[in-house]
Amino acid sequence: MSSIKQHLRLSALLEGISFLLLLFIAMPLKYFAGIPEFVRYIGWAHGLLFVWYIIAVFMGREEYKFSLKQTAIALAGSVLPFGTFYADDKIFKHL
Description:
The protein is an all-alpha fold. It has helices spanning 3-33, 37-64, 68-76, 83-90.
């Protein structure tokens, strides 16, 4: 497996997990339990993983010649819950 493919798949997995943790654990704890610390730390980690994922998508686009549609799906996946898992299943694992 190529290094770029590994980066794509790993960054998709970790970014997706961090996004779900932020949305479904950290945010409810902040707004319903008054515990903002989780948002601070998970949000920071998610931000780094988000940037890594976007860079990996553009590297993958260059290496594997993604179509505009594939690139749009991969990028949209970064802002939709479960989106990176979808992008991995439909695009990245078939490279």
